[in-house]
Amino acid sequence: MEKKVYKIAVLPGDGTGPEVVAEGLKVLDAAAAKYGFAFEKTTFNWGGEHYLATGEVLPEDAAETLKKFDAVFLGAIGHPKVKPGILEKGILLKLRFDLDQYINLRPVKLYPGVETPLANKGPEDIDYVVVRENTGGIYTGIGGISQKGTKSEVAIQSMVYNYMQVERCVRFAFETARKRHKDAPWRGLSQEDIAAGKIGQVTLCGKTNVLTFVFDLWERTFYEVAKDYPDIKTAYCHVDATCMWMVKNPEWFDVLVTCNIFGDIITDLGAMTQGGMGVSAGGNINPNGVSMFEPIGGSAPKYTGLGVINPVAAILAGAMMLDFLGEAEAAKDIEKSVEFVTAKKMKSQSAGKMGYSTSEVGDLVVENL
Ligand code: IPM
Ligand code: MN
Fold first, then answer.
1. 266-284 mean pLDDT
2. Ligand 1 contacts CB of residue 93 (under 6 A)
3. Residue of minimum CA distance from atom 8 in ligand 1
4. C-alpha of residue 260 to centroid of ligand 1, in Å
5. How many CA atoms lie within 13 A of 317 on its CB side?
6. Pairing between strand 281-285 and 103-109?
7. Of 365, 189, 145, 161, nearest to 261 (Cα)?
8. In a 10 Å sphere around its CB, with 0-12 CB exposed, 13-18 middle and 19+ buried, how is residue 99 labelled?
9. Which of 263, 281, 255, 294 is nearest to 176 (CA)?
10. Is the CB of 261 under 6 A from ligand 1?
11. Is the pTM of this model over 0.70?
């Protein structure tokens, strides 16, 4: 049989992005060798340095170029010498929109041995995913400012959703719940756990008590789509209460689905409960197109080049990429190896306190594959 070759666009980006990407790729290559597939990688040096040198944020045809790949692997975007917003909007958000990556999938999973600030909670309590809508809502930038700088100044930025955007996002969440249900035995969940509702549930996170137009649409669509998934339970939480339960009873969640801005906010909270930005990965998913996988932390400029940044998030982003490419077994293998390394090897998940350098952590994950 001919060896499967996946074409990957690599965007190392700024700051510590290239360092963590290198470890992600190291682990991906090791998994490829073990499972008999290969990568053909093309690197694009878009980011802060490229912008400062050329004035170009992203080439005109960037999205078209990336559409020729099977997936995109991204490090981090953000540069201390570039005004906030330029690179974030011009690269990250632009690619999410232009590639129609309408889902931002963010697992909140506490790996064994990783410290959580939540008292009396362990890996069995913190294991859910957030399905964040990724191309709509307040992020579309609809709005404007008039009479700027005067006392009459008005600024508007609207939360806009159409039915199609909500429907496809909610449907993805239910599909995700089914997949997690199927994977339950591998994830160490028992039939009792399943019966107790730890799995097979989608919770809509909204604000139906105040945002009565937008979340009316979300709520109706949610229950309509739910009819196609009689095997999956449903729940609803306002976003403020969601934050509360994420801290107090994270074990209640399996799949959380929400709009773009709420998803942005709650996933930073989720990341902290799972041990921080060093371990939090995300996927910008277009189920019918090209998806982009990234560690969700920033470029951490102060740690650049020191070999102290935690590559676990990038490694897990790589595993997520493999899962979406159809290499589920290799993806699970990487996750298992990460679990071993966090439980038995690493002292901490914080930069500089891991007990190992960035590349040593990558090596450990490779050794234990
Ligand atoms: C994220 C980030 C981005 C977002 C920023 C950098 C534009 O915070 O991926 O969560 O708001 O989506
Ligand atoms: Mn964010």
1. 97
2. yes
3. 264
4. 10
5. 37
6. antiparallel
7. 161
8. buried
9. 255
10. no
11. yes
For residue 293, the cross-strand partners are 73, 283
Q: Please state the length of the chain.
A: 369
**Atom number in ligand 1 closest to CA 282:** 9
Cβ atoms 177, 232 nearer than 8 A: yes
Query: How many angstroms from the chain centroid is the CA of residue 85?
Result: 20
pLDDT at 197 over 70: no
HEC profile of the chain:
CCCEEEEEEEEEECCCHHHHHHHHHHHHHHHHHHHCEEEEEEECCCCHHHHHHHCCCCCCCHHHHHCCCCEEEEEECCCCCCCCCHHHHHHHHHHHHHCCCCEEEEEEECCCCCCCCCCCCCCCCCEEEEEEECCCHHHHCCEEEECCCCCCCEEEECCCCCHHHHHHHHHHHHHHHHHHHHCCCCCCCCHHHHHCCCCCEEEEEECCCCCCCHHHHHHHHHHHHHCCCCCCEEEEEEHHHHHHHHHHCHHHCCEEEECHHHHHHHHHHHHHHCCCHHHCEEEEECCCCCEEEEECCCCCHHHCCCCCCCCHHHHHHHHHHHHHHCCHHHHHHHHHHHHHHHHHCCCCCCCCCCCCCHHHHHHHHHHCC
Q: What is the pLDDT of residues 247-265, one digit of tens each?
A: 999 999 999 999 999 999 9
User: At residue 199, does pLDDT exceed 90?
Assistant: no
In tens, the pLDDT along 85-98 reads 999 999 999 999 99
Q: Is the shortest distance between the CB of 133 and ligand 1 below 6 Å?
A: no
Contact (CB, 8 A) for 58 and 25: no
Neighbours of ion ligand 2 (CB under 5 A): 264
Sign for the CA dihedral angle at 328, 34, 312, 43 comes to negative
